[in-house]
Amino acid sequence: MLSAESLTRARTPSGRISYAHIDRKIDGISYERFEIPNLIELQLDSFAWFVEKGLRDLFDEISPIKDFTGKVMELAFLDYEFGDPKYSEEECRTKDLTFSKPLYINVELLIKETGEIQRQRVYMGDYPWMTDQGTFVINGAERVVVSQLVRSPGVYYSETEDPASGRMLFSAKVIPNRGAWLEFETNNKDQLWVKVDRKRKIAATTLLRAVGYEENDAIAALFSPVDTDLEHPFIAATLDKDLTHTQAEALIEVYKKLRPGDPPTGDNARQLVESLFFNFRRYDLGRVGRYKFNKKLDPVAERLGIELPREGRTITREDIAAIVGQLIECDRGLHLKDDIDHLGNRRIRANGELIQNAFRIGLLRMERVVRERMTIQELDKATPNALINIRPVVAAMKEFFGGSQLSQFMDQTNPLAELTSKRRLSALGPGGLSRERAGFDVRDVHH
User: Which of 17, 136, 187, 357: CA 20 to 30 A from 40?
Assistant: First the structure.
C-alpha cells in the first residue's frame, strides 16, 4: 500500500506541494525514491532558448539595416537584455494585466559621410514573459502556446502513374523552412522539369546552368554515374529540350518564367536567382532541413563526386545536382518514395520557435520603417531612437498571443487538464494544416 507517510513532500516557491520522491514497498521489497520528470520541460526550455539564442539570431538577421542607397547610414543591433516586470504574476491575474518584461537593446548608428558613430540604449517594448508554470498571463487570463507539429524541411520524393503510358513518373519537392519551393518532376519523354515557387515549368538543366553548371558536356559528365539507363537517358533528353547554352541565357530564361512581363537584364536575373536561393534572409532550410538534406542526399552526392555543405542553411548548386541525381535513381528503382505524412518526416515547433517567427514578422516590418525614415531624416538630427519605431514589433507579438490558433486559453478544469494543455501538439496554425485541407491521408496511421 502507498501511504501518505511514504511521500516526501516539498513546497515549491509558488506555494504548491511537489511530490518529488516516492518510496514504495511491494511484497516486502523496498523501492526507494525515483525522480519525477519535469513534464513541462519542453515549454520552459524552448522559451529560455528564445530569450538567449532565438532573439539574438533575429537581430543578427536584420543587422545592419542600411538605407536604400547603402551609402548614407546604417543601424546595427548589439547586445540586449530584459528588465524587471512592472507587476507580479499575481497582480496581473487580479488586475487583468499582461505579465511582461521590457526589452532594451544597445543600438549603433553609423553616419557614413562623416564617420560619426552614435550609440544608444533603445527601449523595444514590453513582451509577455513565461511563468514558472509554463504559461503566459495575457490580460489577466492564463494562456498556453501549444507546440505545433509541422512538415519537416527537406526533400521528398513521390510517384504517380502516367494515365497515357502507364509508366510511373517521379517528382521531388524541396520544402525549406523559409523561402521558395522547388518541385522537380519527370515526364514520359524522359525529360526533367522544375517549377520554382509553383510558377511555370523550366527544364531542370536550365536551372543547373543558371546556378553554375554551364557546359552541356560538364552536365552530362556530372550525372553519368547515375544516368546509366540507355532506354531512358534523362540528361540527354532534357538537354535536347533546353533552349539555353550559357549561364547568362539560363538566368534570363529563369527570370522570364518567374517575372513574366518584366524586361529581363543580366544583372536583374542574377540578383533574382541569388536572392531566391542563396540569400539567408530570403531562404532558410533550418538546421533540421540541412541535417535531413545531408542524411538523404549524401549517398547520391558521393556517387556524383560532389560534397554537400555540413553547416550552410541555404540551398547550394551541389544540393540541386544531388536532388536531380536521386530523382533519376528513383526511375531506376534505387530509391523508394517518401510518405510525407509519416511522423518521421514531421517535427515539433515548440513555443520558442513560434514566438521567434512572430517576432521576425514584426522586425521585418520595423526594418522597412527604419529604411524609409533613413531617406527622409536629416543627418544632424538622426539618432537610433528617432529611426526605430517599435509599434510593428509590439503589434505582431500582440496579434500572436491574442489571436493565433496556437495561443490558447489554458484548461483549468483540474491539474491534469492543465498539464495536458501545456503538452498538447497541434497540426493547425501558420505553416501547418487547416481543417479543410486535413484529409484522410494526414489523419491515417503511418508506419
Answer: 357
